[in-house]
Amino acid sequence: MAREAEQIEQQKPAPLLARPFFPPPMCAVTPNTNPGNGEPLVVLWRDGTRSNGKLHCNEIPSNLLLMDVEGNKKPVHIDLSLTKLVYLPTVRKWVNLPQSPEDNFQIVAQGLLDFQVTFKDGDELKGKTAGFYTDKLGLYLYPSHKEGFFHFSVIPHDLISDYQIGPKIGEQLIEDKVISPEHIASALLEQIDKRSKPLGEYIAGNALVTLKELEQALNSQKTTPNIKLGDLLIQDKLITEEQLEDALNDQLQDRSTPLGEILIKQGKLTLDQIQHALARKLGIPYVDLDKIAIDEQVLKLIPEKFAKQYNVLPLHIYDSKIVVVMNNPLDWKTLDEIRFILNMQVIPVMAPETKIKQVIVASYYALEEQTAFLDDARIEEIVNEEESLDEPSVSDNVVVRLANKIVIDAHQKGASDIHIEPYFGQEKTIVRFRKDGSLINYHKVPGNFRRALVARYKVMAGLDVSERRIPQDGKINFGRYSRLKVELRLATIPTAGAEEDVVIRILAGGAPVKIEELLLSKDNLECTKYVLKNPHGLFFVCGPTGSGKTTTLHSVLSHLNTPDRKIWTVEDPVEIIQKGIRQVQIQPKAGLTFATALRSFLRADPDIIMVGEMRDKETTEIGIEASLTGHLVLSTLHTNSAVESVIRLLEMGMDPYNFSDALLGVLAQRLTKKLCNDCKQAYNINEMDLKNLAKEYCHEYESNGLDQGKHRPEAFLNAWRDAYTNGDGEIILYMAKSDGCPSCEGTGYKGRIGLHEMLMASNDIRVAIYRQASVSEMLKLALVEGMKTLKQDGIAKVFQGYTDMRQVRKVCPN
User: How buried is 238 (Cβ within 10 angstroms: 0-12 exposed, 13-18 middle, 19+ buried)?
Assistant: First the structure.
């Protein structure tokens, strides 16, 4: 008998997946209760006869069952295509699979579900099941009379006329307390009004969607994604075209709204609630893909092309089974494909179709990013595999991964800019990051990569790849290529040897910094807040490129952003998004400039206007006009100091009288490196160094003839001793550790802080503007009125332990 069974085994085709009867989804059974040879087996044949015997060999996917029948010397070969029902009468016990601590979502059995199967010959089978399973062979049920116990059974698909598992969808919604019976009735009545009476009676008297109907609907949606319920009912021959036409009349083009859409439209349900109800009805877990961390190792098991084609995503290996998320868990063809690829049992879970598509794209991009290379040896290895990276045959995947990895690493390191610097021939291309104002080497890319890498960034920015003779600039929405949601501003510059340099600015966005967190001195913060209380006028933030002007302006806007104010901004680019503020991105090619946007704002009932930059006379004149007609106008200038900003505007041709009347104040700023809090070193400043520091602090006073009384170095020495001397009679300052620490990557500095000077438009300053006084005259007047220069503010921050004089002198040399 064993030898004959072995011969049969050798003759049969290789199974797709050899496995025994398996337990219900999300359940486990003890090993000694798994089906095994010699166990009782019942087979109901299609001709109505019945066979009792014992299991000899079972491999369901190969359509082969061997059963020992009393009186037969050989095991009977049972072809499932000839059976009506295969049943194992032995009672099994199931338990929920245990959850391990690292599991990121719960998968548990759904309890007993009602089921009803209608055979094509009119027979019915009903009862309770501990879940269900479906594949190309049939419907697997686990009949049960008591929670925790079950039997194995399988019914071939081609014999089933219809089946339903779980409650009707309307009953499920009511049970979940998502909606009331009255709301269900109201929705049904709306459908009845739009259809003929027979259709209304059908919908009111039957389940709206049985599992069979749901399978048909979902299969139809693969080719007609937005098909309406009326069309599906016609396809299923439940109603005629004439009946639908009579019911819809003039609305034939729009068709009737499905029950779910009606409920959503009425505000009684959300799509998410409906899908949750469907998941519970089917006894299948519903997962929130926004909160689940995808297992990267599991992700590698299913090719990206397959995942996108079938819209499935592997999540987790669970008790030697793979959990996949899909919007149609009844799609047994896709499930069978996954079983064939992985040779594993598959547990389907549910999520919305659009969300699955989004997460598939993001997850596989992230997987590529993590497998991208950085070391020279790996890059050289890949280069050697390529014939020429300057030719069209270059591996797109290699270049894409490298381009993405450079941006992601730059962002993670806190860099503001990326510099791609190609050289001649086989010389390596240098990649450098600007971090905290300084350039640092990141990587050297083989020379053969230079043009392919530059071309990749140009493609991402929508630039002309073939044009290398002139500078180009563009923008990249990096979120299209990665899960990293940043915007990049790209500029290309032709260099010697027909090459191009690329400089990429990372616009990280994010929330605005609170004005109190800008580290303005107490006096400067009070002056700034005082200025912002004015309902109209002109306020400037000035400084060189990269000095944090935009960050400061958005902090100011955040301070002013209240529900009773209308705020408009025009920027290039829009870096920080703030709720409650209407923000405009300039589009010069379309004619939308700072000036045209500013003019349009004046017709849009603004309270506050922010102009990204006063670049020309026209924009500045409109800004002054707006400030004089009852609006608070904020803007930036590229100047070196607060006083120079005033002179620059006058030199642009501004009317001195109007300008002096409109100006409220000018805040100049610089950014300097901040000492690393984890490794900065304290030291006791000696008396000589302290006196020299006081002289440096008073340099501007002395240069402007203010070297008497409170402006003398001795006055500040006494003030510093009173404020900063510790209990040991010492003044403690801090300096950077020479070799730094891991937190600051060995530099001794981490992050940057602002140095500020605030020029208030006092009456005397206004008069000086009207007289068009010189820079020195206006500076002397501002110092007399109490303005602290950038260097003086920097020295104050040295005493407060934020930075050191080396960094202050770098940004404020005079």
Answer: middle
Best CA proximity match to 528, nearest among 549, 552, 562 = 552
Query: pLDDT (tens digit, 9 = 90+) per residue, 45-64?
Result: 888 788 888 887 655 444 55
Structure token digits, residue 278: 């469907």
Is the same domain home to 15 and 155?
A: yes
Do residues 174 and 202 both lie within one domain?
yes
Task: Write down which residue in 124, 148, 165 finishes a domain.
Answer: 165
- 664-721: pLDDT as tens digits: 999 999 999 999 998 999 999 988 999 999 999 999 898 888 878 788 889 999 899 9
Higher pLDDT, 256 or 563: 563
Q: Is 613 exposed, middle or buried (0-12, 13-18, 19+ CB in 10 A)?
A: middle
Reduced to 3 states (helix: H, G, I; strand: E, B; else coil), residue 209 is coil
Q: Which residues contact 646 (CB under 8 A, 6 or more apart)?
A: 663, 666, 759, 769, 778
Helix ranges (DSSP H) in 195-228:
197-205, 211-223
Pick from 75, 2, 100, 553: nearest CA to 318: 100
Q: Mean per-residue pLDDT for 600-607?
A: 90
With DSSP H G I counted as helix, E B as strand and the rest as coil, what are the percentages for the chain, rounded to 5?
40, 25, 35
The residue among 659 and 236 whose pLDDT is bigger is 659
Question: Domain residues for 549?
Answer: 515-671
Domain-located, residue 360:
no
Sign of CA dihedral 555, 560, 565, 567: negative
pLDDT tens by residue, 444-455? 888 777 788 898
Tokens of 626: 């707006």
Amino acid making up residue 647: I
Q: In what order do the strands lie in the sheet with 313-318?
A: 313-318, 321-326, 346-350
Q: Do 333 and 441 lie in a common domain?
A: no
